[in-house]
What we know:
Elements: H1 2-17, H2 22-37, H3 43-63, H4 68-87, H5 93-109, H6 114-133, H7 139-155, H8 160-179, H9 185-201, H10 206-222
Helix pairs in contact: 1-2, 2-3, 2-4, 3-4, 4-5, 4-6, 5-6, 6-7, 6-8, 7-8, 8-9, 9-10
Amino acid sequence: MKLATQALADFDRALALSTAGDMVYLYRGMAHGAIALQMSRRQQDARDECRAAIAELTAAMERNPDRADTWMWRGIVHAALAYDAALRGDDPQPEFDLTMRDFDKAIALDDTRSDALMWRGQSHHAWGSYLVFRRKDPMPSYLNAITDYDRSVTLNPTNALAWRNRGTTYDAIGTWKEVGKEDAVETYQKALDDLTQAVKLDPNSAAQVKPMMEKAKRYLKAHAK
């Protein structure tokens, strides 16, 4: 957070010295977003940083509406606000809709952006989890997430986070199928395969995904034919 704060001061000086193009506003928005994502225990401060990030990113768009990075980053910030709204018991739908709008635009501008596809997939997954909490069917959202992750790992097969996220979504689908008394063998096998690949690409993720991997192994062993 210290580096992001220093970066903001540097960008302030850049704005004071020149008529800035969109990149300075983009980087300022990214810095505010980075600060917000590190302030999970100070929710009001984090919300303020998110709103500051959105203002900067919107200013960048006004100067260059065709930069996919800007739309993607504003989508990330709206996703954080949607998550915050859900935690507070407020309706996250408005922020979720803004999240999807921005990710859709980023991908429309550059459909080779594996990172934008991954972030959109993560937001679909998060919305599915929210629907589970509301006792509603999450499957359309989970399947949308899988579609985005499929494209993301195809474009960048070395992105460990995309593999981990897809494995996490398959794990969630498996849980949902178990609740509905459906067979989940294929789903848990896919979860295990993706999480295994994620660990190969990023060994530091092993501890985080271990519970899901062990869960998948238990289910597959119990339902082996």
